[in-house]
Amino acid sequence: MKSLEIADLRATTVTMPLEAPLRHSNGAHWGRFVRTIVEVETSDGLIGLGELGGGGESARLAVEGLRAQLVGHRAYDLSALWFKLCNPTASLYNNRVQIHAAIEFACLDIVGQALGVPVHDLLGGRLRDDVPFASYLFFRYANEQTGAGEVRTPEQLVAHARELKQQHGFTVHKLKGGVFHPDYELECYQALAEAFPDDDLRFDPNGALDVKQAIRFGQAIEPLRNDYYEDPTWGVSGLEEVRAAVDMRIATNTVVTSMEQLASNVLHRAVDVVLLDTTFWGGIRQTLRAATVCETFQLGVGVHSSGELGVQLATMLHLGTLLPGGAYAADAHYHHLADDVIVGGKMTYRDGAIPVPDGPGLGVRLDRDKLAEYAELYERLGNYPYDRDPGRPGWFALVPNERWADPSADGAVSVQARGGAR
Q1: Are the C-beta atoms of 231 and 239 separated by less than 8 Å?
Q2: Is 176 considered catalytic here?
Q3: Which SS3 state, helix, strand or coil, does residue 220 take?
Q4: Rounded distance, CA 83 to CA 338, Å?
Q5: Residue 281 class from Cβ within 10 Å (0-12 exposed, 13-18 middle, 19+ buried)?
Q6: 268 is annotated as an active-site residue
Q7: Is 244 strand, coil or helix?
Q8: What is the pLDDT of residues 307-338, one digit of tens each?
Q9: Which of 160, 304, 318, 370 is catalytic?
Q10: Strand 6-17 vs strand 32-42: parallel, antiparallel, or unpaired?
Q11: Is it true that the peptide bond before 17 is cis, omega within 30 degrees of 0?
Q12: Residue 298: helix, strand or coil by DSSP?
């Protein structure tokens, strides 16, 4: 077997346009995602791919600043890689979990290429040929250039969900809430349920509601076909109180994101479904460890989306095919993207699912022209502040929130400003 020693690593930040700006409880995605593509190259000439959220000079320096620690490290020494980058004591000072994830993705990609097998074969073999996804529905501003794509009213939300169902075949619908007052979002959610009586639903206000609001909203939607109620309020104690009062499974991707937090939830149940994110947890191997614990203690699992391009989507697909039976349909922002940086362009949904890549490693490769195109777009547009709303100057979110957006305020907003943290 080749030595697979790391010889170099590179990071390229790109901006990927969205169909329309996506609104969430803490602000918005301003008509684009900013992502950083990581390339790990071995002395044997193999190149593995990784991806993490955010970007710019800070992300590039953070990744490439690890070069001295990683040159000479063998790509298949993944247990050592975790402690080399994420020693739990050192991580109090230099949290590198998401950077580790991107490098682990690349190392698994390298090992798979060297052996000529897909990543899921390295980790136990596939259980399914494709991974089902939920529609990921957001309240949206109109596209600044076209004026199209706004989602603000119940009618617009249902029309958008119907379009996605016709185009991609979704039979599960997730609404990202926390933007408007919960009474208004309840009307929107109930409109979805009425429009799609045979489909499953899930609601996620990103922890924006106080406990009283979360209980009232949850009890109002109990009769509907709910998969689960995701992060209705913030914090373990709040979720535990909501869980006791609402006859519905409670899910999270925010308060159970490490093995220590998972152990606490096993001992003192606050959530019933853990949404595993290949980035937030630090890589595919960490999420599989968590999935095993969840299976043992009868906790549900699903695949969480943190705003992926094709490289991270591939990691989500490899994870999704390895999860035990009964896993919930995965989340993905992917259908909101205008394009991708991988060869062949965007992956295609079939009947609400995406086939698991079966090529060596992650099974995706970079389209160098697209990478250069969207890296140049990043240089022109820069970052955007994820935790600010371009339609509400001066606003910022409280937790729990009490300053809701006005659903009567329509129209497009300017999203081309540079600066910010994301």
Answers
A1: yes
A2: yes
A3: helix
A4: 37
A5: buried
A6: no
A7: helix
A8: 999 999 999 999 999 998 888 999 999 999 99
A9: 304
A10: antiparallel
A11: no
A12: coil
Measured CA to CA, the distance from residue 336 to residue 17 in angstroms comes to 9
Total-model pTM: 0.96
The predicted model gives 397-415 an average pLDDT of 90
358, two tokens = 């079966």
The string of pLDDT tens digits covering residues 213-236 is: 999 999 999 999 999 999 999 999
Q: Encode 39-71 in three state secondary structure.
A: EEEECCCCEEEEEEECCCHHHHHHHHCCHHHHC
What are the counts of helices (DSSP H) followed by strands (DSSP E) for the chain? 13, 14
Q: Locate tokens 């909203």: which residue?
A: 217
Is the pLDDT assigned to residue 88 strictly greater than 50?
A: yes
Alpha helices in 273-384 (DSSP H): 284-296, 310-322, 368-381
Domain ranges of the chain: 6-118+368-381, 121-355
For residues 3-26, b (16+ Cβ closer than 10 Å) or e, as one string?
A: ebebeebebbbbbbbbbbbbbbbb
Calculate Rg over the CA atoms of the chain: 21
Burial 296-314 (b: 16+ CB within 10 A, else e): eeebbbbbbbbbbbbbbbb
Structure tokens at 372: 């250069």
Q: How many CB atoms lie within 10 A of CB 33?
A: 27
Q: Could you tell me the end-to-end alpha-carbon distance of the chain, in angstroms, rounded to an integer? A: 40
Task: Determine the Cα–Cα distance for residues 292 and 60; give it in Å rounded to an integer.
Answer: 33
185 contacts: CB under 8 Å, gap ≥ 6 = 175, 177, 178, 179, 203, 205, 217
Specify the residue for token string 């979002």: 185
Lookup: tokens for 32? 């684009």
Q: Contact 130/355 with Cβ under 8 angstroms?
A: yes
**Residue 60, number of CB atoms within 10 A of its CB:** 16
The identity of residue 357, as a single letter, is P
DSSP secondary structure of 87-135? -TTGGGTS--HHHHHHHHHHHHHHHHHHHT-BHHHHTT--S-SEEEB-E
Identify the active-site residue in 176, 318, 333, 370.
176
Amino acid at 72: G
The topology under which CATH files domain 6-118+368-381 is: Enolase-like; domain 1 (3.30.390)
DSSP 19: S
Domain at 121-355, CATH class: alpha beta
pLDDT band with cut points at 50, 70 and 90 for residue 1 = low
